[in-house]
Amino acid sequence: MVSTEPETSPSAKGTVLNFNLNPDEISSAVDTLIREGKGIQDAVAAQANPTFDNVIVPLASRENEQSAQYLVVTFLQNISTDRKVRDASTAAEERLNDFEVESNMREDVYKVVRAVFDNESEMAKVSPEDRRLVEKMELQYRRNGLALGKEDRENLGDINKQILELGVRFSRNVNEGDGRILLTREELEGLPDSYFDSRTTETEDGVEKYVVTTKYPDLVPAMQLAKREDTRRRLLYVEETRCPENIPLLQKAAKLRLQAARLLGYKTHAEFILEVNMAKTPQAVAEFESDLRKRLNALADSEIVEIEELKKADKKAAGEPFTGLYTWDFRYYSNLVKERKHNIKDEEVKQYLPMKEVTRGVLDIYQEMLSLRFVKVVDPPVWHADVEMYEVWEAAEDTFIGHFYLDLYPREGKYNHAAVWPIRPRFERPDGSHEYPVAAMVANFPKPTSSTPALLKHTDAVTFLHELGHVFHSICSVTKWGRLHGTSTEHDFVEAPSQMLENWGWEPSVLRRFAVHYQTGEPIPEDLVKRLVAAKNEGAGLFNLRQVFFGLFDMAIHNTTDDDIDIKAIYSGLREEVGRFKNGDAESWGAATFGHMMGGYDARYYGYLWSLVFSADMYAARFVKEGVRNSQTGLDYRHEILQPGGSRDAAISLEEFLGRKPNNEAFLKSIGLGSD
Asked: How does pLDDT run across 280-305, given as a tens digit for each residue?
């Protein structure tokens, strides 16, 4: 079955956001946000008889109504083609961060919030979601130091401002600091002809060479397919020596986080962070990662042997000595093992995954699963011509739900990975009406070339499914308060809904619905699908050890009482020890572009593997058992997992959907391991 063309609409339904702001308009919007926010806080702090209605409602309503404008002006730094707009957006985020720190440190506001929180008769009147809102609000103030003395409180506020400023600078450096290298066609031996279509060339020392950047569509294929070890080594060096200025930023942030934790009475930053997550303690995370590492090493032992044999044979044929496996060998030889054992090549699979059909197919999957209907907006008001805008409606009734945007291709100055921004939450107004949610997916998939349309690797299609999972967590969430909407869950659960949707990319019946040859329209051959699925867990030991490494690095710099840590040494040492590939002799600093450490995943990176336990359990227990196209199962998922957002504990949502407490059996099986 070929996927269907989405409906179209000549204009967008609902309140449409304006992304076409100039620097002056951005600055003016920030002035307004701060002025109005301060006015509301002043009025609330002056309440002589604090109640839910005169304290909590105004504060939360301010968050509801201002959140979209706040997110638009700060989002522009990641997607605008205008350097001046990106600069203004970055400056806006710094100003707004400073204001939020000051707001969270207002003792007079905390006093009235705490009065409502402590008023048992007042709290008895409110709904469960209202109660959760008050509890979250009070906890946030307390975790920002409002229970401290004045001097410590002011010190903490200053520290938090510095950390936020460092994060903005770190992210900006990564987005603006792409690396590049010039390589000849011979040096890029192994790359397909399509890699060179429309690729920029430059002449160096009289020789025409190709420009290869560190953007995903350039870097990853070269690391997977370039036969010459020196080419891979040089390219990885370019990638891992980007943004040297970010190492002292991360170093300083880790030190400041530890200082903040100590002021609040915690031994480490990780202890502070994990208190409000599902894991609860650093010990629980350490035990999880230690156990998983032992299990994965058993898989990796045999994978290393296979890779070593391949590289030794290559070295023997070249008349060169074998000196070991290096980080630049990981993608190349892992891919080679997959190709030889399963006869799978990305270049072959790509022919059946044109972006247009994948987009249709993936959207069809979400429409069917969640009982939704998408309508593509014609000539939408967007920030770039490549961006698509969709309306979301209930499938069975004429009920509008929200908007989402797809910004899928790389360009200069754009955020250079894949992520989703929940631009506007759904929330209720006092008159009974509600605002419609908006989310934007930003990615860097391969662009069309002079000879082919945009063609995706299978891993790209899986990434598409994953990121759209975040989009629909936002779109399908139904909460009264924006603070509790969508992905505002415990951080070590937030990836689970998206990770679960990745499984659809491995379902043969699903793949055959939209994977068609870009030239002939023929569906993907059944034999190719079988080979693809058979290769799913090839290299799972080494791949997941890489994830364990990132989590252990995160804990090493955030679950420590040491003020002076050596970021580069910790990163290099752990990568070699855990990942099992040598670093080489050249000094590099891969942590400088590890954006998660400055983008909200500090002491939380373990959550990617932790949440896989839940995603695998949900998929196996309900969708495998009841059918991946079972509409009732999809509705149950929408209602029990997506709809509550953060309005209740994730553990409750999981138990409601599963009908029991979650376990790790499906997770271990999914990565090629058995349970005890």
From this structure: 999 999 999 999 999 999 999 999 99
CA distance 206 to 123: 77
The DSSP line for 410-467 is --TTS--S-EEEEEE--EE-TTS-EEPPEEEEE--PPPP-SSS--B--HHHHHHHHHH
Contacts for 265 with CB less than 8 Å, ≥ 6 apart: none
pTM score > 0.85 for this model? yes
**Residues labelled as active-site residues:** 467
Burial 598-621 (b: 16+ CB within 10 A, else e): beebbbbbbbbbbbbbbbbbbbbb
Q: How many CB atoms lie within 10 A of CB 569?
A: 9
Model confidence at 534, pLDDT cuts 50, 70, 90, reads very high
pLDDT in tens, 622-637: 999 999 999 999 999 9
- Tell me what the mean pLDDT of segment 633-651 comes to: 98
Q: Three-state DSSP class for 402?
A: strand
Would strands 207-213 and 201-204 be described as parallel, antiparallel, or unpaired?
antiparallel
| Cβ atoms within 10 Å of 380's Cβ, excluding its own | 17
Kindly give, in sequence order, each residue whose CB lies less than 8 Å from that of residue 602, ignoring residues fewer than 6 positions away.
253, 257, 269, 273, 554, 558, 596
Read off φ and ψ for residue 204, nearest 5 degrees. Answer: -130, 120
